[in-house]
Design brief:
Helix 2 (21-30) packs antiparallel against helix 4 and helix 3 crosses helix 4 (49-69). The protein is mainly alpha-helical and 129 residues long. The N and C termini lie far apart (60 Å). It has helices spanning 6-14, 21-30, 41-47, 49-69, 72-78, 83-88, 90-93, 103-128. The longest helix has 26 residues, at 103-128. The protein is 70% helix and 0% strand. It has one domain (6-123).
Amino acid sequence: MTIFSAIEDLSARTLAAISGTWHRLRYVARLRQPDGSYRHWGLERTYGTERAQTAIRNAHEGFFLELLRSPLRHLVREVDDSITEDAARASDLMPADRRGGSARHFASVLHALRALRRQRRDSGNRHEH
């Protein structure tokens, strides 16, 4: 008998250990397989494939929208130098159902985060010299 629903379990046991919307989005996006399905062994074992997939898909869509709604000043604290790699594969990070969020908006957020990250890194290097 399980105490949690699949989404509660995913949130409490897995996603709670990952800080920030950006990192959570990256994590759930990486659970997506080439065929568009999501795989998480523990959730599938406990809740079955369909419930696990629904939970991960909902989390993916939710983090995508949360990221689009977040102020850049909060997001820039979360990103690291991998933002350049992530921006190059933006389509891999977006859920199939964007719930009204746009690919263009997402691309602009990634572009801004990459530029802000580069600016922070460059200004930090100038202060070291």
